[in-house]
Amino acid sequence: MTIIDSDENDVVQDWKWADGYVQQVKKILKENTMHMIAIDDSSPEQDMKESTDLVVKTMAGKVAVRIRRANCQYRDLTIRSWRASGAKTELPKIKEGFGDFYLYAWEDKNSELSNWILVNLDTLRKSGLLENRRTILNPDGITGFINITVAELRLSGCLTAYCL
Fold this sequence. Notes:
Layout: E1 2-3, H1 11-19, H2 22-31, E2 37-41, H3 44-50, E3 54-58, E4 63-68, E5 76-83, H4 90-95, E6 101-106, E7 115-120, H5 121-127, E8 136-137, E9 143-149, H6 150-155, E10 159-163
């Protein structure tokens, strides 16, 4: 899992912190698998020759996960869009088609992931919400991000599920 609220010097410590949430992340994803599958009628041939009435298809394969610390007051989607080093950031990777869903969660004061959004990245890419957004510099001066509000995600049909 990738951390957003960290100094570059604390990356290893932050990874360990985020890894402590793996079981909660898996639970959220398992509880929302109904949003990641499609159930279609079988073809007449499948019905007659294969004893198949319904076909279940998985619509997802890769899920990006980001966790914000309890002191984060904002409930919007932020995507790293710039690094002073010139290294490739999340934004171009998502635009290039990587990832199917994005689970973006916020820890609460009890170390629970009580707020989260599950974003369909294909819908987000098609929505135009990733285009022509202003990069906001982080206080570290070496990274920047774009932000997309939950309202924008909801209106564009990008939210698969959420708990806010």
